[in-house]
Design brief:
This protein is α/β, with parallel strands linked by helices and 285 residues long. The protein contains eleven helices and nine strands. Pfam families: adh_short.
């Protein structure tokens, strides 16, 4: 049988894409590991993967990547993993809409544009799209509303792609990802509320939470996560909405069985909105 192929976006060292590339490689696939900065993927080239530059929000870069894969495989691709993404953590009323648009370009619109570009190769092999979604798209996690919305879009668009590509034999898996131990927060800029934020009295509570302090005790090892994603992807009948990662079962249970406003009862204590409220009321006196 011909060696199966996979292209993964966002494979910088220490992240989910890096771990996925290694896991697919370990399972015998030919891996096209891509990143915007090639200096961050040199280790993957050293262990035998095809490595090249891909900026998912650059149309020319995407088109060049398609041509490279087409030349290497003769016009097919078995798996496309849309992993590239970024965060934007601030209370919604403190956000800059231009920054939010950039994040949506990266987290949402690029996923569809990259999938469109590679669709002829996926259709030729009756392949599989794997979108890295998030539990943040299933619940209104405080202080990161635009990020949550971008991941909610990916969760829904994955279902949309699966339905619309079914006539061509192409399927789509959405990995609803929980807390994973990567360099995501380490590589993110520090979270600072604007000086004129209406939440200023609660900044000492909000800033650490927005920077990831609330999930540090539930992080899943990234290699364990990657192995789970790859194991599912390689099944003859994979789970199409795969929940995987630290802290997922609470979100899954509430999202599945709870009423629509149940988060109003749960998250004030989980994310210390109660403490923020006390600080704001004290400052107003």
């Amino acid at each position: 049988m011909a060696q199966k192929t996979v292209l993964i976006t966002g494979c910088s060292a220490g992240g989910i894409g890096d771990a996925l590339a290694k896991a697919f490689h370990k399972n015998g696939l030919r891996v096209f590991a891509t990143a915007r900065n090639l200096a961050k993927v040199h280790e993957l080239r050293a262990i035998g993967m095809d490595v090249f530059q891909l900026d998912v929000v650059d149309e020319v870069s995407v088109r060049q990547a398609v041509e490279k894969v087409k030349t290497a495989t003769g016009g097919t691709l078995d798996f496309l993993v849309n992993n590239s993404g970024g965060g934007y953590n601030l209370p919604l009323l403190d956000t800059d809409v231009s920054e939010a648009r950039k994040m949506f370009d990266l987290n949402v619109f690029s996923v569809i544009e990259v999938t469109k570009a590679f669709s002829p190769l996926l259709i030729a092999s009756k392949g599989t799209i794997i979108n890295i979604g998030s539990v943040a798209g299933k619940a209104p996690v405080p202080w990161q509303g635009y990020y949550n919305a971008s991941k909610a879009a990916i969760n829904l668009l994955s279902d949309q792609l699966r339905l619309e590509l079914s006539p061509f034999g192409v399927t789509c898996i959405c990995v609803v990802t929980g807390a994973i131990k990567t360099k995501f927060f380490e590589n993110s800029p520090g979270i600072k509320l604007p000086a004129d934020s209406i939440y200023a009295p609660g900044k000492d509570i909000i800033e650490p939470i927005a920077a990831g302090s609330s999930v540090q005790n539930m992080l899943m090892d990234v290699d364990f996560y990657a192995e789970g994603v790859v194991k599912n992807a390689l099944k003859s009948n994979p789970t199409k909405n795969q929940w995987l990662g630290g802290g997922i079962w609470m979100i899954w249970s509430v999202a599945t069985f709870g009423f629509s406003t149940v988060w109003d009862w749960i998250f004030p204590s989980v994310f210390n909105i109660i403490g923020v409220t006390k600080n704001i009321k004290a400052a107003q006196k």
